Amino acid sequence: MFQKAALLAFSLATAVYGQQVGTQMTETHPKLSWQTCTSSGCTAAANGAVTLDANWRWLHTTSGYTNCYTGNTWNSSICTDGKSCAANCALDGADYSGTYGVTTSGNALTMKFVTTGANKNIGARVYLMADDTHYQQFKLLNKEFTFDVDVSNLPCGLNGALYFSEMDADGGLAKYSTNKAGAKYGTGYCDSQCPRDIKFINGEANSVGWTASPNDTNAGTGQYGSCCNELDVWEANSISAAYTPHPCTVNGQTRCQGDDCAITSRYSGVCDPDGCDFNSYRQGDTSFYGPGLTVDTKKPFTVVTQFLTDNNSTTGTLTEIRRLYVQNGKVIQNSKSKIAGMSAYDSITGAYCDDQKAAFGDTTSFQNHGGLKTIGQSMGRGMTLVLSVWDDHAVNMLWLDSTYPTTSDPTKPGIARGTCSTSSGAPTDVETANANASVIYSNIKFGDIGSTFSSTGTTSPTSPGGGSSTTTTTAPQTTQTKYGQW
């Protein structure tokens, strides 16, 4: 939902984004198995693996070890302009576990928040690969995406995010001749915030007009941003969770400049920065998600997301994004909205987004950028799976798990998003007190509606006071029943 520019890392050279390929460390992608499913069952996909985003990698001269970027400053003697920087600098392989705290085992990916070795690394972002040089592309219309997650070790101020961005499958390798690294080295990132902290965009350094961050010793912003449609399937910690589509008026990864990047106004850009979010706490059900609640974040659980179309086909128009959970063998229907002026919605539809924006008094940026129809078209073209863990140097993650804006009345609809204190989430605090935080993603499945999960029962909350009831069910829902939207 909000700017992801706070991601940072420290290694032999401070985290950077480059285009040539270095030879100091061999790039070996950690294996990660996942499955595709139909009504007949699930099969393992071939060549599952992840690659580290290029913004974390060591960038040095092609002829030696001199850093092209240190702290939050470019080496101006090497990077005199964007094109020369791309020619002079090489992006190297990654020590995934030792430097970045990224490990895999079978179908499970563990991402540590802080990893301290010879140097200190904070957070990470990885992409699922189809093969050694291409990101896996998912076409989500009339499909279902499921994964297990353990957020028990993610406190206030942190975000374990699993989402899709409309990135080029090869990381821009074919489009931009100065990009020699491609998807193998994690190039070509984009999202709906049009991030300007990306070090290289479209095969050129973003060094011109670069401004060092005043509160982040490892980050800054350049004159360009990297925009694309973004579908946040999961942004969460142990306190709060949200899923949020963000449409753009551009197709695929697009470099922006000026107001197209929303520099002077949050809503002047080519992408929707707010999205249309479903956060159970923000929608008024404060007893649904969290430690010991209906979805108990002290234990792992399964997250199921279904993308329904108007004609039940993979070529139809996206009309609904539905959420289910499975925990302890029970299917848990999503919480229902309890906001005055809204129906008891429990999924994202056009009507839900219209009513939510009106009830909360929010800007209709989502609708202005095409809403579900536009994000659905992006899903039809194919999107890259992104998995990350990060802290927030902009607003301390308060938009996810606390009262935000902090100056607003928390009793006003849409302001309270979780139980975290408004003084929580400061990176200087969480990077010290919660250095051992981590998130585990596992058991990724993708396929036909109703094919990726099973259960022995269905659980749903009964009242704002807590508690739940259990009823038996013979099979997962496969029809387009509109829960709570009569």
Automatic annotation (TrEMBL):
EC primary class = hydrolase
Which GO biological process categories is it annotated with? cellulose catabolic process
Q: Where is the signal peptide?
A: 1-18
List the keywords (alphabetical).
Carbohydrate metabolism, Cellulose degradation, Glycosidase, Hydrolase, Polysaccharide degradation, Signal
Q: According to its UniProt record, which reaction does this protein catalyse?
A: Hydrolysis of (1->4)-beta-D-glucosidic linkages in cellulose and cellotetraose, releasing cellobiose from the non-reducing ends of the chains
Q: List the GO molecular function terms.
A: cellulose 1,4-beta-cellobiosidase activity
UniProt keyword annotation of Hydrolase present:
yes
The UniProt record lists the EC number as 3.2.1.-
Source species, domain of life: Eukaryota
Region called Disordered, residue ranges: 407-427, 455-486
Q: Which family does it belong to?
A: Belongs to the glycosyl hydrolase 7 (cellulase C) family.
Q: Any idea what this protein is called?
A: Glucanase
The organism encoding this protein is: Sphaerobolus stellatus (strain SS14)
